[in-house]
Amino acid sequence: MKTDIHPEYQTVIFLDTSCDHKILSRSTIQSEEMMEWEDGNSYPVVRVEISSASHPFYTGKKQLIMDRGGRIEQFNRRYGGAEEATEGATEEAATEGGEETAAEAQA
Predict the structure, then answer these.
(1) Whose CA is closest to 30, among 17, 15, 43, 16?
(2) Region 23-51: what's the mean pLDDT?
(3) What is the CA radius of gyration of the chain?
(4) Which residues of 60-70 are buried (b: 16+ CB within 10 A; e: fewer)?
(5) Which of 38, 39, 43 is nearest to 14 (CA)?
(6) How far apart are the C-alpha atoms of 45 and 24, rounded to whole Å?
(7) Contacting residues for 11 by C-beta, under 8 A, at least 6 apart
(8) Count of other CB atoms within 10 angstroms of residue 12
(9) 83-99 burial, b if ≥16 CB within 10 A, otherwise e?
(10) Which helix (H) or strand (E) holds 47?
(11) Cys-Cys crosslink for 21: which of 52, 53, 57, 60, Cβ 3.0 to 4.6 Å?
(12) Which pTM value belongs to this model?
């Protein structure tokens, strides 16, 4: 290997913030935060949101789509369905048409 081109490979603690699970591993990630491990030594801490302790694949806890509604229903709730878009367009057209006739009446 060439010298002075590779990042420092060090022991770090990966901390799952969702369930406070800690894993001691090695990585090239740099961190300013330090934490004491069970062996009495201090190591840099890298905070992660998901690990094997909290991921549904490893825990066996599935998030059912049926509980939240289907994907189409979720999309329609978020962005509005096609029916709402067409109803809104017809209401706007009726309103604009009414304004035009009022403007023509004034002229």
Answers:
(1) 43
(2) 94
(3) 29
(4) eeeeeeeeeee
(5) 43
(6) 9
(7) 24, 25, 26, 43
(8) 20
(9) eeeeeeeeeeeeeeeee
(10) strand 42-48
(11) 53
(12) 0.53
> Measured between alpha carbons, how far is 22 from 36 in angstroms, rounded to an integer?
11
Residue whose C-alpha is closest to residue 35's, from 51, 20, 18, 50: 20
What is the rounded CA–CA span in Å between residue 5 and residue 69? Answer: 51
Residue in this structure with the two tokens 């009495």, named with its chain if needed = 40
Share the mean pLDDT of the chain: 77
What letter represents residue 50's amino acid? I
Bridge partners, 45 (sequence order): 13
User: Which pLDDT score is estimated for 65?
Assistant: 46
- The structure tokens listed for 36 are 């004491």
